[in-house]
């Protein structure tokens, strides 16, 4: 092969690599757009359900304060409608902040 043929082959391979990279980038972007669209649909669905709950007569909605019993051993309790979430103090983890140590889950 002469130098011109080698250079032409090199340019062809370079063009194919760039085309492949562009295709992969395009597919990745499409996946991101689809994932964002799914997230937006979920958010809209949640918003619609929340609105329908809020539109009801307040006397029809009954909720108790799940944090009243202090379920979070080493953290703060956040009360939600029919649920709660424990925000654990540093160094504690678990559903009720019952574990000491991040990696090993020691009690």
From TrEMBL:
It comes from the Eukaryota. Residues 63-98 form the EGF-like domain. Disulfide bonds join 67-77, 88-97. Gene3D superfamilies: Laminin. InterPro entries: EGF (IPR000742), EGF-like_Ca-bd_dom (IPR001881), EGF-type_Asp/Asn_hydroxyl_site (IPR000152), EGF_Ca-bd_CS (IPR018097). It holds the Pfam family EGF. SMART domains: EGF, EGF_CA. Keywords: Disulfide bond, EGF-like domain, Repeat. PROSITE patterns: ASX_HYDROXYL, EGF_1, EGF_2, EGF_3, EGF_CA. This is EGF-like domain-containing protein.
